[in-house]
Design a protein that fits this description.
With about 325 residues, this protein is α+β, with helices and mostly antiparallel strands. It is about 20% helix and about 30% strand. The protein has helices at about 10-25, 45-50, 100-110, 135-140, 185-195, 205-215, 250-255, and strands at about 30, 35-40, 65-70, 75-85, 90-95, 115-120, 125-130, 155-160, 165-170, 175-185, 200, 260-270, 280, 285-295, 300-305, 315-320, 320-325. The chain has a 6-stranded mixed β-sheet. The longest helix is centred in the N-terminal third of the chain and has 15 residues, at about 10-25.
């Protein structure tokens, strides 16, 4: 599909320079087809997802959606997922490294009387995300302009040059944009339509850089059994009023007693550092590095920092690298 990712021919570097510029002042497109797409259907689908994740599904209508977090019974994070509610199903866009795990996890919690069916649609579908300041104008040109200004994760099906695609509000990052879902067979044609309209392809490497710069947590890095969604700063995914769900007691208790002991922050670094490294402030260990990348903005990492140690522009050391804390647009730390 014209994606170039890390090839030895040097195309990625030039593409990603142009793509980063497009994110800032035009439109870039990332191929997220390697992300998982899981369909939850049958009569109890909304109640089931309401009980298994942190957000409020009982209030969602077809054409609406939300971000939500699958959590363990002790409130630890499994994955940050975007859900799109349709007339007869809910489509979940899940992290690439959680597709199989979540299929098995969900299956385990479907009980005999539950009317819930789960299907993995990943191989028969594709996902592209449009990122950039001019994505609204592009949507108008694609004939999907009535999506502009709708709430996050709103979605509808459009015909784009004869190709059927579900267009959803939101890029998956804090950059303005849209996410397009289509069939795997139509995907190359849709990609061609977008690139012929001047949308700049971006590699998965650039997506990963933007993810870290903005603070979107990733399973096996920021989302693990060691951390809960409040520590990960995913307040926008948590309904504090929806009643009982798996892990709810832990999360409610943390909220009520101000028990969030560590928080996800960005760290601007003087040199690359190994993920998993201890973060020191003087002689005191204050956190752990979970992701690190080199971008045109310099070297930046994601880290969990002890709440009591957090201070504006806190100076830290990670091995031989010097660093300072920076706030992240994707996460929030305040209590609601």
């Amino acid at each position: 599909m014209g994606m170039v990712d890390g090839g030895a021919n040097g195309v990625t570097a030039t593409n990603d320079t142009a793509a980063r510029e497009a994110v800032r002042s035009g439109v870039a497109v990332g191929d997220r087809s390697h992300w998982g797409r899981l369909q939850v259907s049958d009569a109890d689908r909304l109640r089931y997802l309401h009980n298994q994740t942190t957000n409020n599904f009982n209030s969602l209508q077809p054409g609406q959606g939300c971000d939500t977090v699958f959590v363990t019974s002790t409130g630890r994070t499994i994955d940050l997922v975007t859900a799109y509610v349709t007339d007869n199903a809910v489509l979940l866009l899940v992290s690439p490294n959680r597709r199989t795990y979540l299929m098995e996890w969900m299956d385990r919690f479907i009980f005999f009387a539950d009317k819930v069916a789960i299907k993995d649609l990943t191989d028969s579908t594709a996902t592209f995300s449009l990122l950039g300041t001019r994505s609204d104008a592009l949507l108008e040109k694609l004939g999907a302009g009535d999506m502009v200004g709708k709430p996050y994760a709103s979605h509808a099906i459009y015909s784009i040059n004869g190709i059927e695609a579900r267009v959803a509000v939101g890029s998956g990052l804090t950059t303005p944009g849209y996410t397009l879902l289509t069939s795997a067979t139509d995907a190359p044609a849709l990609w061609q339509v977008l690139t012929e309209m001047g949308v700049v392809p971006m590699s998965n490497t650039l997506w990963e850089q933007l993810r870290i710069e903005q603070g979107r947590p990733l399973p096996d890095h920021e989302l693990t059994e060691d951390f809960n969604p409040l520590e990960a700063g995913l307040w926008h995914t948590i309904s504090l009023s929806k009643g009982c769900y798996i892990g709810q007691e832990t999360i409610a208790r943390l909220h009520t007693y101000r028990g969030v002991k560590q928080q996800l922050w960005g760290v601007r670094l003087s040199a690359p550092a190994e993920t998993g490294s201890a973060i020191m402030a003087g002689d005191e260990k204050v956190g752990v590095l979970t992701s690190c990348t080199n971008t045109d903005q310099g070297i930046i990492g994601l880290a969990y920092i002890r709440t009591k140690a957090v201070a504006p522009d806190l100076k830290v050391q990670i091995g031989s690298s010097q660093g300072e804390l920076v706030s992240l647009p994707f996460v929030s730390h305040e209590y609601l």
